Amino acid sequence: MTAVISQPAAASPGSGGKPPDGLTAREAEVLALLASGLSNTDIARRLYLSNATVKTHINRIFAKTGAHDRAQAVRYAYQHGLANPTS
């Protein structure tokens, strides 16, 4: 019989917890949308932001998470419970 060790869920937007690695709630929200496959323009429309503001959020996300590109940021989002695969 194999023991299953559960890890505490990471904070996600709206969960009341604090996002990991100093991300703001807005950065966590942008990261979750990025991980769902939305483009910068789509994220800007969804959150009523300018494209420049979305780019700023993404650059700050990269800096705080150590990601070098969108793929690494998406991986980070999944590892920290900020995004979930859809069925």
Please describe the structure with a list of short key phrases separated by commas or semicolons:
globular, 0% strand, mainly alpha, 4 helices, disordered N terminus, 87 residues
Q: How would you characterize this protein structure?
A:
With about 90 residues, the protein is mainly α. It is built from 4 helices and no strands. Helix 1 crosses helix 3 (about 50-65) and helix 1 (about 25-35) packs across helix 4. The longest helix is centred in the middle third of the chain and has 15 residues, at about 50-65. It is globular, with a radius of gyration of 14 Å. The termini are far apart. About 25% of the residues are buried.
Output the number of helix runs: 4
Backbone shape: globular
In oligomeric terms, what are we looking at?
single chain
Tell me the span between the first and last alpha carbons.
29 Å
Describe the largest sheet.
none
SS elements, strand count: 0
Which structural class matches the secondary elements?
mainly alpha
Rg of Cα set:
14 Å
Question: Mean pLDDT, nearest integer?
Answer: 83
Order of helices and strands: HHHH
The helix fraction, in percent, is 40-55%
Which residue ranges are poorly predicted, with pLDDT under 50 across at least 5 consecutive positions?
Answer: 1-15
Strand content: under 5%
Helix and strand layout, with pairings?
Elements lengths: L24 H11 L4 H8 L3 H15 L4 H10 L8
